[in-house]
Design brief:
The protein has 16 helices and six strands. By secondary structure, it is α/β, with parallel strands linked by helices. Helix 1 packs across helix 2 and helix 9 crosses helix 11. It is globular, with a radius of gyration of 21 Å. The N and C termini lie far apart (65 Å).
Length: 363
């Protein structure tokens, strides 16, 4: 019998010794009547907030009764939801303001990551909290985009742009002291990045994007899945909220053939396969077996990925501080062994280049 492509995910509770982490896993996977009782209910909710999945719980409790030990959760989650809803309205207002002003300058921007997901792919935008607002513009429009942001009161922090940068951040304090941080992109994957072997072409994102509001567009569903896979690897496969995005994106069935073709073309086959398999394990996303077979990692990758991406490891927030572990996961999620070799060989050159740039930037 053929071995399942992600067999190490078949028993998600295995190895999760922390009762509060086990509880969170059950909360994300099961109806409320089957939730595992924790040691400290408040710690479970705090862990959910750290992983940015508290609104997933809020959503599930809209139609279910919590167990006795979680009776105070609905009220607490409702308060957090109100905060997220207000933040969303303010951020949306500022994004639409930028889009309209940019359109008047004959510009157009592509919304990425959190904002695009919240706006189009969650039942309510506040169910997908996010921090920075990522906006991609064509290089020919970059000067106009900067002028537009500055005309709206955004400021550019006084720091030198890093070697190989593909974005810069503009800051604004809006109503209710809400911090608006717009990451203005002119590329998607930088030449100094550990995921530089992935090939997400911005011209393709533009060509397949969908209109949102004046001056603004959003990537199509399949492109969002691919770009979210790149982002997931960048962040070391955490927090769990980044995996929840995949469950939400496939809740409306994508074109699976188109998606797997696009993953191969963008060299994100393994990273997307891992993301979808983890979304199926943690959030019961429905992924066809043949899709997981097509996107499964090769033998040389499995040993590292099995150790680094077990649910027990993913739930551990301490791993976010493990820089070497994150680097290893990033390298192991590349599509081919030659891609890994090229990336490892490039690291010393990249380090030297950035070090020289840092020396040159000193006063």
């Amino acid at each position: 019998m053929r071995q399942p492509p992600f067999d190490w995910l078949a028993r998600p509770f295995e190895g999760v010794s922390d009762p509060d982490a086990r509880c969170l896993l059950s909360v994300l996977k099961r109806p409320s009547a089957q939730w595992t009782e924790p040691r400290e209910p408040a710690r479970v909710l705090n862990l959910a907030c750290q992983h940015r999945v508290e609104m997933r719980i809020c959503q599930s409790l809209e139609s279910a009764e919590p167990p006795a030990w979680a009776q105070d959760w609905p009220a607490q989650l409702h308060e957090r939801r109100k905060v997220h809803a207000v933040e969303w309205q303010i951020k949306r207002l500022k994004v639409l303001e930028f889009g309209a002003a940019f359109a008047r300058r004959a510009g157009e921007a592509l919304l990425l990551k959190g904002f695009a997901l919240a706006a189009r792919h969650y039942p309510r935008p506040e169910f997908r909290p996010f921090g920075d607002i990522d906006i991609l513009v064509r290089e020919a429009d970059l000067a106009k985009a900067r002028e537009t942001l500055e005309s709206l009161g955004y400021v550019l922090p006084a720091r030198k742009t890093a070697v190989g940068a593909i974005e810069t951040s503009y800051l604004l304090t809006a109503m209710l002291d809400t911090k608006i941080d717009i990451d203005l992109h002119w590329g998607f994957i930088g030449r100094e990045s550990l995921v530089r072997e992935m090939r997400v072409r911005t011209e393709d994102l533009w060509a397949r994007s969908e209109p949102f509001e004046p001056g603004l567009r959003i990537p199509c569903r399949e492109d969002l899945l691919v770009t979210c896979a790149v982002n997931l690897v960048r962040h070391g496969f955490g927090p769990l909220g980044n995996l929840c995005d995949f469950a939400q994106l496939v809740s409306v069935t994508p074109d699976w053939n188109l998606l797997t073709e696009r993953a191969r073309d963008c060299r994100t086959r393994v990273s997307l396969g891992l993301a979808l398999a983890l979304a199926a394990t943690l959030f019961d996303a429905r992924i066809p077996r043949e899709v997981l077979d097509e996107l499964a990692p090769r033998g040389w990758q499995r040993g590292i990925l099995k150790r680094g991406l077990r649910p027990s490891r993913l739930l551990d927030t301490d791993r976010w501080q493990d820089g070497w572990g994150r680097y290893l996961l990033k390298l192991s999620a590349l599509d081919t062994f030659p891609a890994l070799v090229r990336t490892v060989a490039f690291i010393p050159f990249s380090f030297c280049r950035r070090s020289l740039a840092a020396v040159g930037a000193r006063p």
